Amino acid sequence: MSLDYDLVIIGNTPEAFLAASQAIKFQARVALVLGETPHDHSLETDSLILSYFTYLHDHWQNFTQCHLNLHSVSQLNYDDLKQWKNKVKQDIKELTNREKLAKLGVDIIEESGEFCRLPKLGFVLKTRTLRSRRYLLAISSLAITPQIPGLAEVGYVIPETLDIDQLPQNIVILCQTYLGIELAQLLNRLGKKITLIIENSNILLQEDKDIIQLIQAILEAENIKLLINSSITQVRKIEGKKWIQAGNKAIETNEIIVVNQRILNTNRLNLEGVKVEIENNKIKTNNKLQTTNPNIYACGRAMGQYSLSNIAQYEASIAIKNTIFYPIFKVNYDYHPIRMLTNPIFSRVGLTETQAQQQYKNDIIIIKQNYKTLVKATVLDETTGFCKLITRRNGLILGCHIIGNNSDEIINIVAYAIKNKIKIQEIAKLFPPYGTISEILFKISRQWQEKKNREKKLLNNCLETLLFWRRKWSQ
């Protein structure tokens, strides 16, 4: 029996659309199965829009306070945000619309289906069965309802259903992911009174201690009430108010926002029937993105800890090459940056300090440079933050952690250096324009060079001797 397609992609996500657009360029026969339920919601897009809005909101307030005659000018408001947000999301949606893919030759199928194993592997729809050489899962995730006594009865909201202008003043956020930290700070900057409850032992389990301490200090300085390592035992409604029992504390609030771990939307796909294993709420894959069924691959935001689109797009590009050609390409996350939309923004690429110490022992050098040394940070009054660079003693860059203004832009320079094995000594040869944030990389590279030079005692002694005799000869 001949096959219908070279690749069938299952999912209604941006990475599914990207995978389809890349696969069709290789002259492959491609089908994209979207399912029956539209899925155009992106928490990352929402966070980015809200982060930019609060940034404008803060700077507008600071500007009007410095210019008394501007107090009469209308302030930024939620109606402006909603209209702008809808316009931006529509523009983003048009970048990956199904009509463009259909014109390229992708078969767009708006039906739900499931895998079948017998007599041959296929994807069964209502009207037909799709047969393909390979299959790619680029599916979405769903919010999980926390198993907290009384929560469902009392009621809560999740980020997908959040309507900012309808939120009351007093809010409790139950947080299990970095998105809860972002949301807490953003809503606080819009004037809400926020209590952030985190069940884990610290606010970011994967990050280094100095990053965690600074982000926590920023949140507390902005009067966000933090309850860390606090398990929630029950939620009740008393006299019209919502009450949360967290540890030994009873907290009264007007609204509860749950930013919980999410679950893969594998409902009715029959993955178990085709021997695709799910482990710790993630589809089990190897470094080639093959599942436990070698003809089925998986990629996307639903697979990763930070749920970032750049990682999802990278995985999609690797999966496409392996499915269309031959599975020889492997994922390598060492040079792909992650970002948190805190204010200031936190960005990281490569190894953490802990990981570097475990792998390279004493063969590492760690250098820090504070944002307060930058001209632009001083001009913008955004001097909070630092850049931490982790290298081997020969200058090979292992990782970089930046918390500060525009960190998500300059982290790409370090990511490029890591990917191409460019040593820190080369960055020290670059002289960025005066008054740019990228100056911090130049400063930290020069600081690294100075540290190395101090370790070269023989060279320093020779240099000191040379300069001594040059002064003598000049007399």
Account of the 3D structure:
The chain has 475 residues and is of the alpha/beta class. Helix content is 36%, strand content 23%. It is built from 14 helices and 24 strands. It starts with a strand and ends with a helix. The mean pLDDT is 85.
In short:
The protein is of the alpha/beta class and 475 residues long. Helices cover 36% and strands 23% of the residues.
Major sheet details: 5 strands, parallel
Derived from helix and strand composition plus strand pairing, the structural class reads alpha/beta
Number of helices: 14
Estimate what percentage of residues fall within beta strands: 15-25%
How many β-strand runs? Answer: 24
**Helix amount:** 25-40%
Low-confidence stretches: none
Q: Give me the Rg, rounded.
A: 26 Å
Shape: globular
The overall average pLDDT, rounded, is 85
Key descriptive features of the protein:
36% helix; 475 residues; 23% strand; 14 helices; five-stranded antiparallel β-sheet; alpha/beta
Secondary structure blueprint with pairings:
Layout: E1 5-10, H1 14-25, E2 30-33, H2 43-66, H3 78-95, H4 98-104, E3 107-109, E4 114-116, E5 122-124, E6 129-130, E7 132-137, E8 141-143, H5 151-154, E9 170-175, H6 178-189, E10 193-198, H7 209-221, E11 225-228, E12 232-238, E13 241-246, E14 249-253, E15 255-259, E16 262-264, E17 278-279, E18 282-283, E19 296-298, H8 309-324, E20 338-340, E21 346-350, H9 353-360, E22 364-370, H10 375-379, E23 386-392, E24 397-403, H11 407-419, H12 424-427, H13 439-455, H14 457-473
Parallel strand pairs: 1-2, 1-7, 2-3, 7-19, 9-10, 9-15, 10-11
Antiparallel strand pairs: 4-5, 5-6, 8-16, 12-13, 13-14, 17-18, 20-21, 21-24, 22-23, 23-24
Helix pairs in contact: 1-8, 2-3, 2-6
